[in-house]
Design a protein that fits this description.
globular, mainly beta, 13-stranded antiparallel sheet, single chain
Length: 260
């Protein structure tokens, strides 16, 4: 598979930058192991702006904008004896609406892995300690085909000289000023496309670009999935026309304590 970054370029530099309001980190609890990047503390919440395109057929798609809120709730012990936390996921159309419960996930920290159970599917999100270019099977615990996750950037020191920074790439038509997050762990989830250049002889039939960014003592701050199937009909093959699939993006806008 052809390894590459998201279709929308990631801007990764080593510098000091300002974080958006509400994302200032707490002192790192374990900067060397990286567990605080997958921040799983009961009573915490994170809120995101979501941009989503759902492709159902050629020239047929729905574009959605809404907000998502994740709340880390009480812990429980699963069948394997692991301690997990319940994650409430709530959505609303915009800041003027009330939050409505959409789904309930769970997440847990193991000795080596952070696991998120999403719609009953356990996915290994992070391997500890994170190492640049280190990889693992995201489907380790669910029986699906191999799905390679890889660390793109991470610095366990996160001091003035080693502070990793991620700037959210702009969507088409957006301005140049974008949110920036410091002290981040960037993970690519088997980014690939099955082409040999996108020509008529070797047309692209599938694209799969997935990236997640975690901030120390905050958790997930950015997610972008672009998983689509391209049109292979005679009248549109090789033209980059999407037939089905989904583009999905989350950007952190607020986080804090439920009791505040």
């Amino acid at each position: 598979m052809l390894k590459k970054l998201s279709l929308l370029s990631l801007i990764l530099i080593t510098a000091i930058a300002c974080s958006p309001s509400g994302s200032d980190s707490e002192p790192a609890l374990d900067p060397l192991t990286g567990e605080t990047y997958f921040f799983l503390r009961e009573g915490k919440f994170r809120e995101y702006d979501v941009y989503e395109i759902r492709y159902s057929a050629v020239d047929i798609s729905d574009t959605l904008r809404y907000q998502l809120r994740e709340e880390v709730r009480e812990q429980f012990t699963n069948a394997a004896g692991d301690i997990s936390h319940i994650i409430h996921r709530l959505i609303r159309a915009d800041a003027g609406q009330e939050w409505q419960l959409d789904s309930i996930w769970s997440a847990r920290l193991l000795d080596q892995f952070a696991v998120s159970v999403e719609n009953n599917l356990p996915i290994v999100k992070v391997k500890f300690p994170p190492v640049v270019n280190g990889s693992w099977d995201g489907n380790r615990y669910n029986g699906r085909a191999l799905d390679v996750f890889q660390v793109l950037t991470f610095s366990p020191l996160q001091d003035d000289e080693n502070n990793t920074v991620f700037t959210v790439p702009a969507l088409p038509g957006e301005g140049t000023v974008r949110p920036t997050f410091t002290e981040v762990l960037v993970i690519e989830q088997e980014a690939c496309q099955d082409d040999q250049g996108g020509t008529l002889d070797f047309p692209i039939t599938k694209r799969d670009f997935r990236t997640e960014v975690y901030k120390d003592s905050v958790g997930l701050v950015f997610k972008e999935y672009n998983v689509v199937t391209m049109c292979t009909r005679e009248d549109c093959v090789g033209q980059g026309i999407i037939q089905s699939g989904r583009f999905y993006r989350e950007v952190l806008i607020n986080d804090g304590d439920l009791d505040d």
